[in-house]
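Per reviewer request, we include the raw input and output of the structure prediction for the construct analysed in the revised manuscript.
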Amino acid sequence: MTFLFFFSALGAFNGFLLSLYFAINAKKKVFTNYFLSLLLLVLSIRIAKSVFFYFNPDLSNFFIQIGLSACILIGPFLFLYLNSYSTEEKRNWIWHIAPYLGGITVLGYFYPYDEHVAVWTSWILKTIYFQWLVYIIISFKYLQPILQKIKDKENLKRIDVWFLSIYIGVAFTWLAYTTAAYTSYIVGALSFTFVLYLIVLLLIFRNSHESTFFNEKEKYKNKEMDRETIDLIGQKLSIVVERELFLNPNLSLEEAAKELKITKHLLSQYINEVLGKSFSNLIKEYRVEKAKELLQTESNYTIEGLGYDSGFNSKSTFFTAFKKITGLTPAEYQKMQSK
């Protein structure tokens, strides 16, 4: 029992220390670091409450209320942290924090946990967990480029692995708490401790110059491409357009490299360093150009059908890529061209 308490409490304690590290000692003192710091802080508060309540059922109700209230900010801080690295428009953090912080404060004042235990355990906590889940779901979109890299068998960057670790850790902790009724209340704390130490290991490896855990295992590492090689690959890459290889919705970096008769590492280096984009984004651009062509010449097909004919494997992927690249929806583009 002593070991169980030590191990579960250690996660909360180290969570506080790690939160302090990112708030004070991180190299770039920007909101990005503060979002991560605050995310770890509210998670640690929630975990600490679980640990002490599990081993001391007579724990002060005020401390229990603080621990439960902290959950309402876990989802927003996860979302804001991932969004802060996004190239898309940054979200106003106040709108994701102030309403929840104000709401839980007012709710806690008029319905204190000490006097309304049933209200908290029946609907307030369930609402908080639901809100937490909603933010986990909407935060998933920031992982899609990383998952696309995995699908295309591209090398992940260090920051990609880091984001996956943070996201999975938060999602796993949510799952542990929502299923605690079927397992054990202490599972959430133990899960957080386990996940936190995985993250700490990643952080250590990330800062270690000797470790190759985070290193991208690319054969071209530290090798610059000469002009002759750049020109050759540029010519070969035109084959993707000429043969319309991008119409294959499952085209991968490895398959493209095989068609062009070059190594996938060399192709990846060219696309990343010379073109300044990822393989998946390049293929999306080719597909959008094909869709624009079809939208101007074909009138007997639905817009959704044209998306599939352009190589996209879903309606949502087509619409999202087209809007991002052209600034217009397919329907808006077609209407503009018909004028």
